[in-house]
Amino acid sequence: MNSFLIGLSVLLVLVILFLIFRVQTLISVMKGTYQKRVSFSNNVNAFLFPITFVLGMALLVWYSAEAKKFYLPESASLHGVKTDNLFWITIYVISFAFLVTHVLMFYFTVKYKYDENRKATFYPDNHKLEFAWTIVPAIVLTVLIFFGYTYWSQITSPAPKDAVVIEVMGKQFAWQVRYPGKDGVIGKYNFKLIDATNEFGMDFTDKNNFDDFVPREIHIPKGSPVLLKIRARDVLHSVFLPHFRVKMDAVPGMPTQFWFTPKYSTADMKEITGNPDFKYELACTEICGRGHYAMRYILVVDEPEDYQKWLATQEPWLKVNPDYISKVPERLRSLIPFELAPAKTETPADSTAKPVAVPTDSLSKVQASL
Question: CB 3.0–4.6 Å: which of 78, 84, 160, 300 could bond 261 by disulfide?
Answer without folding.
Answer: 78
